[in-house]
């Protein structure tokens, strides 16, 4: 990682070594160098990578529906994701649930 700046500030590390898969990342040895004309200072440090949380969403229980076969019905479903991930919904219609 090479960073050149004229001002002192914190720099977020947002890169991974070329050819490294995200699943390979656990503990990485890295270095950072501060340079000024004629001198520099290099420090080593460890980057520990942990798996991001991915908690399941919670879907509110929908009420049963009775519909007229010739009319269109609109139903809203509600769900939340504790990790604020985007949600999508899909439907699966089954027939014969109450057939003997």
Please tell me about this protein's structure.
With 100 residues, the chain is mainly beta. It is built from no helices and 4 strands.
Q: Shape from CA axes?
A: rod-shaped
Query: What percentage of residues falls in helices of 4 or more residues?
Result: under 10%
Structural class: mainly beta
**Could you give the order of strands across the largest sheet?**
1-2
**Between the first and last Cα atoms, what is the distance in angstroms?**
68 Å
Q: How many alpha or pi helices? A: 0
Topology pattern, helix = H, strand = E: EEEE
Q: What's the structural blueprint in terms of helices and strands?
A:
Elements: E1 27-36, E2 39-48, E3 58-59, E4 79-80
Antiparallel strand pairs: 1-2, 3-4
Quick recap:
It is built from no helices and 4 strands. By secondary structure, it is an all-beta fold. β1 and β2 (39-48) form a beta hairpin.
Main attributes?
0% helix; two-stranded antiparallel sheet; disordered N terminus; 4 strands; mainly beta; 100 residues
